[in-house]
Design brief:
Layout: E1 5-6, H1 10-14, E2 17-20, E3 28-29, E4 31-33, E5 45-48, H2 61-66, E6 71-75, E7 91-95, H3 99-103, E8 124-126
Parallel strand pairs: 4-5, 5-6, 6-7
Antiparallel strand pairs: 1-3, 2-7, 4-8
Length: about 130
């Protein structure tokens, strides 16, 4: 079994940089969330704020945070509702385009995750 993917490893893995570290330094990422309405259990959830022609996932950061999510990938220079101060114990990684890293997300085990932003546009994907 592979060790858990740590949030602290995401900046290097995704080619981004850390905006703010999470309250839990050893936070593990267990699944991706692409739709805050379908977040599921917050433990180990990483919310990826995707921007498209008719939507902006960054608008839903407060909702995801209120649901208990504390790990986020956001677009570089995106306006975060309420600024960083609105997410005091959350970890945030900024990348040039959240869709790019989402498509390149590593396979953790055979048959898991694959490309969560691929053709199925699945709202969540498990890492275990």
């Amino acid at each position: 079994m592979l060790p858990p993917l740590l949030f602290a490893d995401l900046p290097a893995l995704l080619g981004g940089h850390l905006l703010q570290g999470p309250a839990e330094p050893a936070a593990a990422v267990r699944h991706l969330v692409l739709d805050s309405r379908r977040a599921g259990p917050p433990a180990g959830a990483l919310f990826v704020a995707l921007r498209g022609p008719s939507h902006d996932g960054h608008r839903y950061l407060p909702q995801a945070y209120a649901q208990g999510l504390r790990l986020f990938v956001v677009e570089e220079n995106a306006a975060l509702p309420g600024g960083l101060a609105a997410y005091p114990d959350a970890g945030l990684v900024a990348v040039a385009s959240p869709l790019g890293p989402c498509k390149r997300w590593p396979r953790r085990t055979a048959g898991s995750l694959g490309a969560p932003c691929g053709p199925s546009r699945a709202p969540t994907a498990r890492l275990s």
